[in-house]
């Protein structure tokens, strides 16, 4: 459903997923191209009506959070990116990510090695 959202709704939703829980002002501050406060509140209301966002009263106003776990949303977005830009190849996507030049910590490298070993051992 997320891929079918209009561009601005998707941007607000993805910002909220990144922040996990925040006020409309927090979402607005997290946008790369900020909208008016009323526009952010309208988009959050639309997302709430679609069942993607929930709100709860907080000490600083309503706090919004994604209904689905962020990991679930991220996995779907990553799958779409791999399908779109890497012809469905997780290995090509991983190679591209590693080629961005960020240095891995020893813990990250060990975790990647374990995941590669598990992927190789999986049966189709």
From TrEMBL:
Residue runs in coiled coils: none
Keyword check for Ligase: no
One Pfam family, short name: Penicillinase_R
The keyword DNA-binding is assigned to this record: yes
Domain of life of the organism encoding this protein: Bacteria
Keywords, comma-separated and alphabetical: DNA-binding, Transcription, Transcription regulation
Protein family (similarity comment): Belongs to the BlaI transcriptional regulatory family.
Protein name, entry field: Transcriptional regulator
């Amino acid at each position: 459903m997320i891929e079918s959202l209009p561009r601005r709704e998707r941007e607000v939703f993805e910002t909220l997923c990144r922040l996990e829980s925040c006020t409309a002002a927090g979402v607005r501050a997290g946008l790369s191209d900020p909208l008016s406060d009323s526009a952010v509140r309208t988009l959050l209301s639309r997302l709430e009506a679609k069942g993607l966002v929930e709100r709860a009263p907080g000490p600083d106003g309503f706090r919004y959070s994604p209904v689905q776990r962020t990991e679930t949303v991220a996995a779907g977005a990553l799958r779409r990116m791999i399908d779109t830009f890497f012809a469905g190849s997780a290995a090509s996507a991983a190679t591209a990510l590693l080629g961005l030049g960020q240095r891995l910590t020893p813990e990250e490298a060990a975790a990647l090695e374990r995941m590669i070993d598990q992927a190789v051992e999986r049966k189709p």
